[in-house]
Fold:
Amino acid sequence: SKTALLHRGGAANEVSMGSAFVLPSDFDTPGLDGFQPAAFIATPILKVVEPMLPGPPAVTRLLQALGRFPRKGCYLYGGKWMAEPVFPQGMKTNGLLGLSSNQQFMGLPADATARPGDYAFLRPTQSEAVLQQFGSIAVFSGGKVIDRWPALPMA
Structure:
């Protein structure tokens, strides 16, 4: 909801900000242009690989040459979130290997410098449906975690 932005004075008994406060990607609308995303999923990169599809190596090489399969990739802790990858830059899901809730494979640009132990960041597409899957929200400011806020419980 973005009704808070519509309030122009006078009496109000309710003003709602809702998901616009954290700006998940489903809320990328012209009315919220002045806002920035405020919530991200951070998850460790478990391993970085030169991925191979099952089967003959020539199939992988052909698909890589055609730009249909990455030459470099990584596996994340967890996965299958309602979220879009934002960092490392150029990271993306891969339809050939699909999604996994255990160790999500993500394609990386060939020149990516990601290493195991680095963190990948994803931007939720929704707020309540995603944030309630996790524990408290780490509040990050000035290069460090300064507080932890509990997510609202499911009703």
Observations:
- The longest strand covers residues 41-49.
- The chain has two helices and seven strands.
